[in-house]
Amino acid sequence: MSEDVKELLRAKIPCEKTGIEIRHSVCDICTPGPQCGLDVYVKDGKVIKIEGTKGFGPNNGALCTKGAANRQYLYRKDRIQHPMKRVGPRGSDEFEPITWEEAFRLIAEGLNSVKEKYGADAVAFMTGYPKWYRPWLHRLAFSFGTENYMTESSTCHTAEVMSYLLAFGNEMSADVPGGPDLLVGWSANHMISGFPNGRNFFNYMEKGGKVVNIDTRVTPNEQKADIMITIKSGTDGYLANTIASILIKNDWIDKEFIDNYVHGFEEYKAMVSEYTVEECEQITGVPAEKITELARLIGEAKNPLIMPSNGLCHHINGLQTHRAVVALNILKGSVARKGGMNPSYGSWLEMNAGFVTKEEEFLNDVRPKGNKPRIGTDRFPVWTELKDEGQLMDFVRQAESGDPYPLKAIYGHGVNTMIHPQSDKFVEAAKQMEFIAATDIFWTEFCSLADVVLPACTSMERSEVKANGNGCIFYSSPAVEPLYESKDDVTIMAGVAKALNLNDDLLKSGYDACIKHIFRETPVDLDQAKAAAKQVPVERVQRDPFLSKPLKTPSGKIELYSEVIAKYAASHNLDPLPKWYSGFGEESPEEFPFTLVSGGRQANAIHSHLHKVPWLRSLRPEVMADINPLDAARLNIEQGDEVYLSSATNKIKVKANLSAIALLGQVNLYHGYEEANVNLLLPNTFLDPYSGFPGFKQLRCNIEKAEVES
After folding, report:
1. In whole angstroms, how large is the CA radius of gyration of the chain?
2. CA distance 278 to 49
3. 341 near 174, Cβ under 8 Å?
């Protein structure tokens, strides 16, 4: 081999001499959010390098740490390689390889046996990450005969959507590029949770926009803001309602907008009038002068945008808190206008790309009739009315009690036990199932509990359609062949549907046929899009102005007083107004004097599936709890000391990281670590009564220095 070829190979230059070629794919790690384009450098059928695709809408060539580690993600050592069946007790990890044909047969026998004995509703169809295959899993559940389809959205994002649906009858999004004259980021951490969105935030600041950031922790967003407001966890709703009271008293509201478009203002006005700056300072920890300054800034702004995040919903008062923050936009009339809150219409897989598909019809065509109420229906009626899936956080209670009917099997893709509060209770409930099938890319604790385990592949090993917010679709082809015996999730579901002998020829036909069915009236040539291997623009649908006709709320107006919630006010003790209540449980603050804040994002991980990627784990190799240095000094804790975090439920051992990122009296711990699962500390009853979301970010706990073993 000549020296020039060796140099080209060392530099990974794609050309005929090196045999390296660039194939285009998409990163699905943060699904369905940024969906960043990937340039995948391939030689001899193996990925040797990953870069971002220049000109690709969401990322335009840039990649975050997670996306840049896609090659190591693909070649992780714990990839599931073959279909397997369990040959030992549940949880024993005793499995043996089997063929795909036998795997499909065993799954069909297991699910149909439960269906015959208890009915289709006794089978729960579950999924975690990723999200690209969800319409197929939802349809598989429907075709099987049950509405018990549940996802990790039972703990992520959906409560935020519910808040918008209750107020506007439609999902909404913040138009930061539209240029508000004041941007209030409330629990916003975009550079970590999805950096393409963070670009909008920082571009706004670079153009001279004024930014206020409110958070319980010191984040990159907060460090860059003009005004930083740190607040005690779970008290944001009280602050929002206090600001609303000040706005109304000072006549800093858009009366004409409220008179024309808003329902329940007088009831709301009476409710917030009880909130005072003095009590707000005491409850939130925000100084009175900062509270009044923030209210004045919002009040005097002509076009403010108050942008709440999903993180606000991870409290047992989360939905009401999010509603309270959204209400400030309503008071200022910052709705359906440039730089305000604007309607978001899902085109495909929750992405607003401006065109219409038949995704909803794809599900409803086979929706079963006369079923038993789906999981969580009675306990969380607001969730049930607004979300077309079961509430996964009620699974353990129903599995244990059999109320209102027994649950006997789980069919899961990407299911992770650690998503559950008091995760060990989910494990015990799963052990009582008569049959479990698990599909995943990597081995998890849930796989250990299954009867049959199937290997799935990554986004670089399959075809899929992505809809981007820039009005384009991207139809990828595999950059490399699926590793080992893995298959993509939709191909697996088609095989399961055939083995079950379901009356659903479309589902059995596989991904491409279903996609063409779903996009059949969308003005795009899918074959051409797939062959192009690049983004293809799609004609946008022209919609009437959002406020030009009645909204999809019971009143037809924007609702500060929710008529949906009002239906369950008496039966479930829910409040139609966004009234604040404490987000703590009943634990004693004397016994558990600290507030545990978990569930936050870090730059090198998302949930649990990146902690075993070497490059990413190296950025934070130890499981560490962020403790305020003053708290640590009082407890005689030094950097790197082992400490116990305990709650009324459990305790875990981690290392101490002394950092001012944590407020006094609060401790921050990232989630998703197998060796220190923070969700073991949360009671499985610690749930928001409106949404069912766990209180990840506000649990009473204690910190104790661990004794050094001799």
Report:
1. 25
2. 57
3. yes
Show the DSSP H helices in 186-343 as ranges.
190-193, 195-206, 220-224, 236-249, 255-261, 265-272, 277-284, 288-300, 318-332
Contact between residue 282 and residue 239 where contact means Cβ atoms under 8 Å apart: no
Tokens at 377, concatenated: 């229906």
Cis status, amide bond into 343, omega within 30 of 0:
no
- The structural domains of the chain, ordered by start, are 3-74 (3.30.200.210), 84-150+353-537 (3.40.50.740), 172-343 (3.40.228.10), 594-705 (2.40.40.20)
Are the C-beta atoms of residues 331 and 248 closer than 8 Å to each other?
yes
Mean pLDDT (the chain) is 94
CA distances to 293, 443, 642 from 440, in Å: 50, 7, 33
What does the buried/exposed string (b/e) look like for 123-153 if buried means 16 or more CB atoms within 10 Å of the residue's CB?
bbbbbbbbbbbbbbbbbbbbbbbbbbbbbbb
704 forms beta bridges with: 644
Cα–Cα distance for residue pair 258/265, rounded to 1 Å? 7
Find the DSSP H helices in 533-613.
Answer: 563-566, 569-572
pTM: 0.96
Q: Which one, of 210, 206, 215, lies nearest residue 226 by Cα? A: 210
Residue pLDDT, tens place only, 567-610 = 999 999 999 999 999 999 999 999 999 999 997 888 788 888 88
**Lookup result for tokens 């899009």:** 529
Angle between helices 511-518 and 134-144 (to 10 degrees): 90
